Amino acid sequence: GAVVSQHPSRVICKSGTSVKIECRSLDFQATTMFWYRQFPKQSLMLMATSNEGSKATYEQGVEKDKFLINHASLTLSTLTVTSAHPEDSSFYICSARGQEAGPYEQYFGPGTRLTVT
Amino acid sequence: AQSVTQLGSHVSVSEGALVLLRCNYSSSVPPYLFWYVQYPNQGLQLLLKYTTGATLVKGINGFEAEFKKSETSFHLTKPSAHMSDAAEYFCAVSGRNNRLAFGKGNQVVVIP
């Protein structure tokens, strides 16, 4: 149980275009989803927290107009990187927390490798 | 706010030897503590967690960790390293707001 998927696993896009990454909870309802960014050989940095049906809460320094997060249903959250640039290339990981989970349970997706050329 | 310190980005251990990864945390509230493992180009897999109760926590793959409040530590150990243990390991702390703060990670290399 508690499986989280991400799609796509890898994406290459041209500079200036937008790309959407999906995060799905497959066997539970995710009331909260988290989006992280991981640079090579570095740790995960929380970008934003989204609750179903509400606007996402962004961490300090994260551009909300550039990284659009939508959590429209209890099983799906999307991250759209708008007008992507090479510096946005990174590994993006989502995690999800369900209603039945304790206050500490987060289940992680497998990540999406974004390369902007 | 919570934070985690993991020293030594790369840790080399011989196959069959003890694995010890150190984690110290800072938290203004009683912490929830976690160890995750990450294999190349994959997401994070939970190894073990401490929330309340017994301070010695056993996880998957033979790993365990002990919460020591007086030392603000949550070190991860495994008695005998296996080649499959080669991966990146992250310690994380969470407060009541469910937001995880990660350490910088330890890249474990297992030497045959």
What does this entry show, briefly?
The complex is a heterodimer of chains A (117) and B (112). By secondary structure, chain A is an all-beta fold.
Describe this entry's structure for a reader.
- The complex is a heterodimer of chains A (117) and B (112).
- Chain A is mainly β.
- Chain A has strands spanning 4-7, 10-13, 19-25, 30-38, 44-51, 57-58, 67-73, 76-81, 90-98, 107-108, 112-116.
- In chain A, strands 2, 4, 5, 6, 9, 10 and 11 form a seven-stranded mixed beta sheet that branches.
- In chain A, a hairpin with a 5-residue loop joins strand 5 (44-51) and strand 6.
- The model of chain A has no long low-confidence stretch (mean pLDDT 91).
- With 112 residues, chain B is mainly beta.
- Helix content of chain B is 0%, strand content 53%.
- The radius of gyration of chain B is 13 Å and the shape is globular.
- Chain A binds chain B through residues 4, 6, 32, 34, 41-46, 49, 91, 93, 95, 97, 102-104, 106, 108-111, 113, and chain B through 9, 32, 34, 36, 41-45, 49, 51, 90, 94, 96, 98-105, 107.
